[in-house]
């Protein structure tokens, strides 16, 4: 069966820039455009030339896309003036864009209230704008704004707007659910009616996510006949965002209902880049990646429940809807009080710890995890602390150094220029192979000061930890066992980009933080194969008697 072509139109750089808190520079735009091009999307809509200096500059040069069509956005010409005389259109036509996508009103209520013109004038603005674009040798298309609301209110007018574009040479008329309130069954019904008059290969879909149905609505529109999909990376976009390309692309390529019928510009090899693309965008925007994002989130293939893990290890298909590698993601097995022996074995194997499945220490370790979780520890987000717990149980963690004591002072005082300041100072006394070391650290808070002091001088181990940095620090007060305790989760990173998570629990926040900081340093020393001191630590769990 020959497959039909579906076209992907990415609007991260335009609708995505309409996300609260998102602000792209020209350089960001160039980088993302290249990323999208490499991924294999068909159109990269880069913004609105003439609307602001960033977009005008971005459109001044061709970004050198190899596959995607460089596309501008803009509104149709103002009523009452010709397309040749419209300054908004002039800026778009001066740009390096090869295709132009115009937002066109298709809801009579909007024509009346927002534009204050007649329906006939609106149709004429669409027709003239498209004609002028085609005359200049550019590919023209319209985003029929509020199409679904417009169709419900006045289907004849909504259809006339689409036809004004198509009849004057637009390659695409894109049906927009601008307010994002349309539901999948309505999309199916309306698109099925539209394709009776305009062929699906001239129609696109643009859905907003205000009822969390943008992806579902997009797929419903494809099933009903449209052949262009608009969306954004990570679902960025006005208000609640747009249809998420990062969810749509894997669905189109991996789900037989779509993969067997359609072809897209992204290959299965390119699909393996999608996790990287999604995280690169977050990195660029300084946003924490959504851990729970379908396909690409860190938790998308993370299994926690013992019953899941036990089956997953027999065959991943038991609990995975697609293989994580297909989207460049990874399988993760979590450890917690929801675990069984299978979780422990999988984690040990992932950490490179060789233990026989029948070794009684596996059950002992599981019991210890459950007991510690009851006391307030949480290992499903602190894999480095779990690995240390396991290796300590097996006697594999050297006593690199010993902390004799620490002290933290918090002082509020007037400084030399008479300003009231709160300063924190920490002193840590450690012993490294018999050598006593005392370090003092200052910080904007007690934990920061403690971290500074602890990592200031570890003697022969200092070079291994020089490039560590504390990335995140989360505190929760909870009831551990029967007492109120503080749980501190610390994320640490090093220069290579590796990140690891450790946990500490205590009724005292400084003590809990200190435990997590210590775990973080010891984990790093262990990963770096730092030389062990002469004396080896005894296992905390007894090895089985040899037979
Ligand atoms: C559905 C969408 O997401 S559309 C998103 C469009 N993107 C943006 O708005 C972001 C960039 N926009 C901008 O920088 C500015 O809005 C500009 C430069 C485009 C226009 O700025 P201004 O001229 O100051 O107008 P302002 O933003 O206040 O109002 C929009 C004007 O466009 C008119 N307009 C809106 N849609 C259309 C359309 N499809 N065709 C013609 N005119 C339109 C409105 O009636 C309004 O006109 P008015 O000022 O005569 O009332
Ligand atoms: C064009 C567009 O972004 C919309 O109608 O939502």
Automatic annotation (TrEMBL):
<keyword id="KW-0808">Transferase</keyword>
<comment type="pathway">
    <text>Amino-acid biosynthesis; L-isoleucine biosynthesis; 2-oxobutanoate from pyruvate: step 1/3.</text>
</comment>
<keyword id="KW-0412">Isoleucine biosynthesis</keyword>
<dbReference type="GO" id="GO:0009097">
    <property type="term" value="P:isoleucine biosynthetic process"/>
</dbReference>
<dbReference type="Pfam" id="PF00682">
    <property type="entry name" value="HMGL-like"/>
</dbReference>
<keyword id="KW-0028">Amino-acid biosynthesis</keyword>
<dbReference type="Pfam" id="PF22617">
    <property type="entry name" value="HCS_D2"/>
</dbReference>
<dbReference type="GO" id="GO:0003852">
    <property type="term" value="F:2-isopropylmalate synthase activity"/>
</dbReference>
<dbReference type="GO" id="GO:0043714">
    <property type="term" value="F:(R)-citramalate synthase activity"/>
</dbReference>
<dbReference type="InterPro" id="IPR013709">
    <property type="entry name" value="2-isopropylmalate_synth_dimer"/>
</dbReference>
<dbReference type="InterPro" id="IPR013785">
    <property type="entry name" value="Aldolase_TIM"/>
</dbReference>
<dbReference type="InterPro" id="IPR005675">
    <property type="entry name" value="Citramal_synthase"/>
</dbReference>
<comment type="similarity">
    <text>Belongs to the alpha-IPM synthase/homocitrate synthase family.</text>
</comment>
<dbReference type="InterPro" id="IPR036230">
    <property type="entry name" value="LeuA_allosteric_dom_sf"/>
</dbReference>
<keyword id="KW-0100">Branched-chain amino acid biosynthesis</keyword>
<dbReference type="InterPro" id="IPR000891">
    <property type="entry name" value="PYR_CT"/>
</dbReference>
<dbReference type="GO" id="GO:0009098">
    <property type="term" value="P:L-leucine biosynthetic process"/>
</dbReference>
<protein>
    <recommendedName>
        <fullName>Citramalate synthase</fullName>
        <ecNumber>2.3.3.21</ecNumber>
    </recommendedName>
</protein>
<feature type="domain" description="Pyruvate carboxyltransferase">
    <location>
        <begin position="6"/>
        <end position="272"/>
    </location>
</feature>
<dbReference type="Pfam" id="PF08502">
    <property type="entry name" value="LeuA_dimer"/>
</dbReference>
<dbReference type="InterPro" id="IPR002034">
    <property type="entry name" value="AIPM/Hcit_synth_CS"/>
</dbReference>
<dbReference type="InterPro" id="IPR054691">
    <property type="entry name" value="LeuA/HCS_post-cat"/>
</dbReference>
């Amino acid at each position: 069966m020959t497959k039909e072509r579906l076209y992907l139109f990415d609007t991260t750089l335009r609708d995505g820039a309409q996300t609260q808190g998102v602000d792209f520079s020209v350089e960001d735009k160039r980088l993302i455009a290249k990323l999208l091009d490499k991924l294999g999307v068909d159109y990269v809509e880069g913004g609105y030339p003439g609307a602001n200096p960033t977009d005008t500059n971005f459109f001044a040069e061709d970004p050198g896309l190899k596959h995607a069509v460089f596309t501008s956005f803009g509104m149709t010409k103002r009523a009452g003036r010709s397309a040749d005389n419209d300054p908004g259109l002039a800026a778009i036509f001066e740009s390096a864009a090869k295709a132009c996508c115009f937002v066109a009103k298709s809801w009579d209520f909007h024509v009346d209230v927002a534009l204050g013109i007649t329906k006939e004038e609106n149709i004429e603005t669409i027709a003239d704008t498209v004609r002028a674009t085609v005359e200049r040798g550019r590919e023209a298309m319209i985003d029929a704004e509020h199409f679904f609301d417009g169709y419900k209110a006045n289907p004849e007018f909504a259809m006339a707007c689409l036809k004004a574009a198509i009849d004057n040479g637009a390659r695409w008329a894109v049906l927009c659910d601008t307010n994002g309130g349309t539901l999948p069954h309505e999309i199916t019904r309306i698109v099925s009616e539209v394709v009776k008059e305009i062929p699906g290969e001239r129609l696109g879909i643009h859905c907003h996510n205000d009822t969390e149905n943008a992806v579902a609505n997009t797929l419903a529109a494809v099933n009903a006949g449209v052949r262009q999909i608009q969306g954004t990376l990570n679902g960025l976009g006005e208000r609640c965002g747009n249809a998420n390309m990062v969810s749509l692309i894997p669905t189109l390529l991996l789900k037989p209902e779509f993969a067997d019928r359609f072809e897209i510009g992204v290959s299965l090899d390119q699909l393996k880049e999608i996790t990287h693309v999604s995280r690169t965008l977050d990195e660029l925007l300084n946003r924490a990646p959504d851990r729970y994002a379908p396909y690409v989130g860190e938790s998308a293939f993370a299994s926690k429940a013992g019953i899941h893990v036990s089956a997953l290890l027999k065959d991943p298909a038991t609990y995975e809807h697609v293989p994580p590698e297909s989207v460049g993601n990874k399988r993760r097995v979590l450890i917690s009080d929801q675990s069984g022996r299978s979780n422990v074995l999988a984690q040990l194997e992932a950490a490179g710890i060789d233990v026989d499945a029948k070794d009684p220490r596996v059950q002992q370790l599981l019991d210890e995890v459950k007991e510690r979780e009851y006391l307030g520890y949480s290992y499903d987000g602190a894999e480095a602390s779990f690995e240390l717990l396991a290796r300590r149980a097996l006697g594999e963690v050297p006593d690199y150094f010993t902390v004799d004591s620490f002290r933290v002072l918090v002082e509020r005082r007037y400084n030399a220029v008479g300003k009231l300041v709160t300063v924190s100072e920490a002193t840590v006394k450690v012993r490294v192979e018999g050598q006593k070391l005392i370090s003092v650290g200052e910080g904007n808070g007690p934990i920061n000061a403690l971290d500074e002091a602890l990592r200031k001088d570890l003697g022969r181990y200092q070079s291994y930890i020089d490039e560590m940095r504390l990335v995140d620090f989360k505190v929760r007060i909870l009831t551990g066992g029967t007492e109120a305790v503080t749980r501190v989760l610390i994320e640490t990173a090093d220069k290579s980009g590796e990140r690891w998570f450790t946990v500490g629990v205590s009724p005292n926040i400084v003590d809990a933080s200190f435990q997590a900081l210590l775990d973080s340093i010891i984990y790093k020393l262990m990963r770096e194969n730092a030389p062990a001191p002469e004396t080896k630590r005894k296992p905390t769990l007894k090895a089985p008697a040899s037979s």
